[in-house]
Amino acid sequence: MSNKKILKIGDEGDEVLDLQIRLSNLGFKVDSIETTSKKFGSDTENKLKDFQKFRGLKSDGIFDHITAEILIEATFELGNRQLYLQSPMIKGDDVFELQTQLGKLGFDVGRIDGIFGPQTVKALIDFQKNFGLMEDGIAGHETIRNLQNINNKETPDTQISKIKEIEALRNKSAALKSRRLVIGHFGNGATLANATARMLRKKGAKVIDLNNPDEDVQARTANGFEAEIYLGFKIENDSYSTISYFKTKNSQSEGGFRLASQCSKEITKAVGIETGTAGMQLPILRATKMPAILCSLGPPGEIIKNTEEIAIALATAISNWFREPLKLAE
Fold this sequence. Notes:
- The protein is an alpha/beta fold.
- The chain is built from 14 helices and six strands.
- Strands 2-1-3-6-4-5 form a six-stranded mixed beta sheet, sandwiched between helices.
- Helix 5 (93-104) crosses helix 7 (141-151), helix 9 crosses helix 14 and helix 11 runs antiparallel to helix 14.
């Protein structure tokens, strides 16, 4: 799996068997006929789609590098390995669990994203300090044992990170003028991205328009710019449009959720294209630290024909969000 080869229905071999075993170990059991023959058949495809949907990925039944990384992350349980700050940062379900448990105890890990970054280290050291443990920022055996013992007792479900994010949004309320925004695109979304950036600049926003399709580059740029919103575009060969925001089983981006709601409403109203919202764990939404949305829009012909109208609708939605960032579109 280290070569991250793309696998799809019809493929055969050891890499397919490795995928089938990993899916089965995670509860998405593949039919024995396909595992015995090492063939990527319809059951493997369906189980992969189920896994992708469960993990907030695009459910297309294609085993690409994004799905491969998430599948590997899903195998880690808290306590199986030491967690500490390194480059590149450690990712995995064990980090999700660590962040969730710390957050329930009132230690601010920031966004619960499964990435062991500086904010998680700070929260972990605060926990260690409060409970008389070595303050090394390493989630080793002793720290995890104490954390789990405490969490086995009754703890609140509300995460401190959610409370802080909502409070920050409440204090953000302001006009769009001088707000820092980053707009990115993937594939053939450049024209719409540029049109939206132009509309937002007319309203006084400070906009960086990224033409690099690399998600890591886009996320680093947005984080380095300290953007207040990230807006991404993809044109899809679908009959509908979806605006995605970051969400896991334990938490979601409250700002992204509400921004997606506003954008969905304005696009539907402006051009009549069915536009829904979805909480997902797509890499660009996970890696950006601000409220972020990814607009996956279709059908292509309608999007191209209505580029200006959609750009105006999105600029209106973003402006409305800055004025009332906690409001959900009706």
